Automatic annotation (TrEMBL):
Organism whose genome encodes this protein: Amycolatopsis rhabdoformis
Segments crossing the lipid bilayer: none
Domain Transcription regulator PadR N-terminal positions: 7-77
Name of this chain's protein: PadR family transcriptional regulator
Pfam families: PadR
Chain intervals for the UniProt region annotation (Disordered): 171-190
InterPro entries: Tscrpt_reg_PadR_N, WH-like_DNA-bd_sf, WH_DNA-bd_sf
Length: 190
């Protein structure tokens, strides 16, 4: 996610201090990965340098002066362009999970066990997302739905992989000819 664009979008509602931006970002988007303060202020510094935000005021406090930031017209245009630009669809061809299953198979370990452990974790995460989605607002529901659909796709893959691993184990136990192919000419093409 573009943190800069998210902060710009949050500034469209009105001027905010860095602390307020961090709090709002974390409430809306950072449930699992809250922003660090340094990340907020370095991003604001870059946005300021690029003319996408400006300082709307400075207030003295007990510590350093507190700057209030506002979005510029160029910042609004940048957010509009970003929102209208489609994201590159990502085909997750090489994930850590797929690599673990492949390595388990290649090393002679129990790939079904790897799949079972992951299935349990996916189901736990799906229950937690569903709970958070039901307790939250429209933004929580949208983010929850997005994550749940991805987890459901992963779960479908886990089920398919478990089925294939089981069939592979079954075919390894079946009698084979001298060249290693199964007797009876049956080949699994799935």
């Amino acid at each position: 996610m573009s943190i800069g664009h998210a902060l710009l979008g949050l500034l469209e509602a009105g001027p905010k201090h860095g602390y307020d931006l961090k709090r709002t970002y974390d409430e809306q988007f950072g449930h699992d990965r809250p922003l660090r303060y340094g990340q907020v202020y370095s991003t604001l510094s870059r946005l300021l340098k690029n003319g996408l935000v400006e300082v709307a005021g400075v207030e003295a406090g007990d510590g350093p002066d507190r700057k209030r930031y506002t979005i510029t017209d160029a910042g609004i245009t940048d957010v509009e362009t970003w929102l209208r630009t489609p994201e590159e669809p990502v085909a997750h061809l090489q994930t850590t999970l797929a690599t673990k299953v492949a390595l388990a198979l290649l090393s002679g370990r129990d790939a079904a066990e790897v799949l079972d452990v992951q299935r349990t974790e996916h189901l736990r995460a799906m229950r937690e997302l569903t709970r958070r989605k039901r307790a939250g607002d429209l933004v929580d529901a949208l983010i929850g739905d997005f994550a749940l659909f991805h987890l459901e796709a992963d779960l479908r893959w886990l089920e398919l992989a478990a089925d294939r691993v089981a069939r592979l184990a079954g075919s390894a136990a079946a009698p084979h000819t001298a060249d290693g192919s199964p007797r009876g000419g049956e080949h699994d093409r799935a």
